[in-house]
Amino acid sequence: MRLHYYRGNIVHAQVDAIVNAANPRMLGGGGVDGAIHRAAGPGLRAACREFPELEQGVRIRVGQVRTTEGFDLDADFVIHTAGPIFAGYGLRSLRPGERVEPRPLNELKHCIVNCLKEAARIGANRVAFPAISAGVYGGSVSTFAHALHEAMKQEARLPIEEVQVVLFQDNEFQEFSDWQETADDAPPIP
After folding, report:
1. Fewer CB near the last or first residue (10 Å), C or N of the chain?
2. What is the pLDDT of residues 64-78, one digit of tens each?
3. What is the C-alpha radius of gyration for the chain, rounded to an integer number of angstroms?
4. pLDDT confidence band for 88 (50 / 70 / 90)
């Protein structure tokens, strides 16, 4: 698995599958979730509605994945996952070697592992990730970078050629880049 990261809009990623940082309802929302739903068109929302509610207003729980087609996106598939909420844990940016509250970090790694396994299952050789759980969920981009790094090491044997991380804002890109440069055993960047 090769890792590439860049600043841009994930809806334009030229990959087989895009990961959506979905909310539990799976019907769109703000940030990445809303952008993916708008770009994919109404077919995505209709496809998400087909997943049964596990409980009132919940179609997906933290760490689970659901896959739909990409509809109007360039990607063939959208892999939806619900990331953990970090807000309330008093977290800050995570640097290599620093420790963080284990529960949400482990849940985030679990989300990423499940997305990688799902990408392999559906035959997606190239998959693009946003910074899951960063932003309104209270996590940082560097915490996502750490969880991604651990998940890629754990699942290195999966038949995925390329993992892209697409970061929308300059500060997000810089934080991911800074983490990547200081990590001793970070995935290689070609």
Report:
1. C
2. 999 999 999 999 999
3. 15
4. low
Strand order in the sheet with 162-167: 2-7, 162-167, 126-129, 17-21, 77-81, 65-69
Q: Is residue 160 part of a domain?
A: yes
Structure tokens at 42: 């109404």
Q: Which domain holds residue 22?
A: 2-182
Helix axes of 170-182 and 141-154: crossing angle, nearest 10 degrees? 50
Partners of 7 in the β-ladder: 167
Q: Which residues belong to the active site? A: 33
Evaluate whether residue 189 is within a structural domain.
no
Instruction: Evaluate whether residue 190 is within a structural domain.
Output: no
* Domain count of the fold of the chain: 1
**Pick from 157, 71, 163: which is nearest to 125 by CA?**
163
pLDDT digits 0-9 by tens, 107-142 = 999 999 999 999 999 999 999 999 999 988 888 899
Closest CA to 161 of 130, 131, 116: 116
| CATH code, domain carrying 126 | 3.40.220.10
